[in-house]
Design a protein that fits this description.
By secondary structure, the chain is an alpha/beta fold. It folds into two domains: 311 residues, Rossmann fold; 200 residues, START domain (Alpha-D-Glucose-1,6-Bisphosphate, Chain A, domain 4, 2-Layer Sandwich). Helix content is 33%, strand content 21%. Strand 1, helix 1 and strand 2 form a beta-alpha-beta unit. It is globular and about 70 Å long.
């Protein structure tokens, strides 16, 4: 191993796009890593989660008490968080508060340095709100007792990154594009491989403590040129691009929300940042940490290859909440959480749970939802129109599901092979919704020669409406639920190639096993 350091390094945002790749790299280099997350379950299923050099700690930058505990005994902190998610209505305010909380928690701690991955902020009086916020966070962190090293990057190109996904979906789907005039603005993207190398190796260079460095790839090009290179690497014809002066960032973000999987809450700050020229003003880091810098073409080629191989370890959409709804916690009185409505269906299949599970595991994405795909697409399109994620996020891998994965407009809360899949709705709905699949063997056929075991497959939607609008929404959707759920169960059963023993039929209240759902989470997992 390259480094035998025994010091503990804290990585905030360990389930995010960069953090989820940095943690295993630091472990490989011999560092003892403490991964700070709001939802530990999201890391428990990662292949490196059982590494002896890893501690997983549950904490939140907006919970000062948990943050102070997470910092205990750490010598360095990687600050990799940002708040451009649906969780925060005002990302600038959320980022500001998180940075101040970190400064307070660092006071009197053992931390000797902080490494902050920021945006490449140009010397421009007309900075976008996103870049202003990145610069402000750097200023706030500099107030702490621990000196801060700032690495400033423009667009990060890699499989699953927001910048790459924006380019990919725009160029893949639109042979003709009407764009704002920012299409001719210059930028200096950098490959995720190079970003990770700079982050991991910066610990070995104490001379970088307290300094700021621009990090960028070898190419300076316009967004038009970036689109052209992507089209060439993807085997597409050159796209027709028509720049117009009238598209505002707001209109552009709405358009991106419809065409790409990136929601408006993230698309708008990104689009606003495109009006600024983001090019490195100095390259001192290249002499301190020399490494082969990937060209934009090579970065895109590698990212496309990973997408084709379904080998994308982290995605921009990984940073989602995986808390279990409190109103499904066992032990509460029926009225404790408010009105909860359910729609459940069940089917019996002459098969084992192991034979049925692969069809459940592959649901969504390119596989679809087994019944009414047109209705699902219409629902996804409607969700996009009102700023939700829609169906275009797809899924990380067509064959495997991990806790925390984005699955179309759902988030995976629980995966138990051959028995249980629980999804939380991230589409825009007037309330909170979950979709649950359960598999359980029955006693039918047990001990009877020649009889195939029977599996009971149930599908249940749980919904806690918000106000009258929520109730109206639920009852308006009820006929579609009955059509979709029974059809989905029948299609899954037939997909096994085995006989249906009963149903699909509505499941009674006694058949919805609510108390086998996960227990409620602690306060830091909110």
């Amino acid at each position: 191993m390259a480094n035998s350091s025994t010091h503990t390094v804290l990585v905030t945002g360990a389930t995010g796009y960069v953090g989820g790749r940095l943690v295993p790299l630091l472990l490989e280099l011999g560092h003892h890593v403490r991964a700070m997350v709001r939802s530990p379950r999201k890391l428990a299923c990662r292949p490196w989660a059982s590494h002896p050099g890893l501690d997983i700690v549950q904490a939140d930058l907006h919970d000062p008490q948990s943050l102070a505990a997470a910092l205990q005994g750490c010598s360095a902190v990687f600050y990799l968080v940002h708040s451009m998610t649906a969780r925060h209505h005002d990302f600038k305010d959320a980022d500001r508060k998180a940075a101040y909380n970190m400064v307070r928690a660092l006071k009197g701690s053992s931390v000797q340095r902080v490494i902050y991955l920021s945006g490449l902020v140009p010397d421009d009086a007309n900075l976008s709100p996103h870049l202003k916020s990145r610069a402000e966070v750097a200023e706030i962190l500099s107030l702490s007792d621990a000196p801060v090293t700032v690495l400033r990057a423009a667009q990060i190109i890699g499989s699953g990154s927001a910048s790459f996904e924006l380019v990919r979906y725009l160029v893949d789907r639109l042979p003709i594009m009407i764009t704002p005039k920012w299409i001719f603005m210059q930028c200096q993207p950098i490959a995720i491989t190079n970003v990770l190398e700079y982050l991991a190796r910066i610990l070995d260079h104490p001379e970088t403590t307290g300094k700021t460095y621009d990090i960028g790839g070898p190419d300076i090009l316009t967004y038009r040129e970036l689109f052209d290179i992507y089209a060439q690497e993807a085997g597409l014809r050159r796209r027709w691009i028509i720049p117009v002066p009238v598209l505002t960032p707001y209109l552009s973000s709405l358009w991106l929300n419809l065409v790409t999987p990136v929601p408006t809450v993230l698309a708008r700050p990104l689009v606003e940042g495109l009006r600024n020229k983001v090019v490195c003003t100095e390259n001192a880091i290249r002499d301190i940490i020399p490494q082969p810098l990937l060209s934009v073409r090579e970065s895109i080629r590698r990212a496309l290859e990973r997408v084709r191989q379904h080998a994308v370890p982290t995605r921009w959409s990984d940073a989602g909440n995986t808390r279990t709804a409190e109103w499904l916690a066992c032990g509460d009185a029926p009225f404790a959480g408010g009105t909860v409505v359910r729609s459940a269906h069940v089917v019996g299949i002459h098969a084992t749970p192991e034979e049925v599970w692969p069809l459940i595991r592959r649901i969504g994405g390119e596989t679809g939802w087994y019944r009414g795909d047109l209705l699902w697409r219409l629902r996804g399109f409607a969700d996009k129109l009102i700023g939700g994620p829609g169906l275009r996020r797809g899924r990380r891998d067509p064959e495997s599901l991990l806790v925390g994965d984005a699955l179309d407009f759902w988030r995976v809360l629980r995966v138990e092979d051959n028995s249980h899949l629980l999804l939380h709705a991230e589409m825009r709905v007037p309330g909170e919704a979950l979709l649950e699949f359960r598999l359980a063997p029955t006693r039918n056929g047990e001990g009877r020669p020649g009889k195939t075991p029977e599996t009971r497959l149930s599908l249940a939607a749980h919904f806690m409406p918000r106000g009258l609008g929520g109730m109206l929404y639920w009852y308006a959707m009820a006929p579609f639920h009955a059509y979709l759920f029974s059809g989905m169960l029948k299609a899954i059963a037939r997909g096994t190639g085995r006989d249906i023993t009963f149903g699909p039929r509505p499941a009674g209240a006694e058949e919805v096993d609510q108390c086998s759902l996960p227990e409620r989470n602690g306060p830091q997992d909110q």
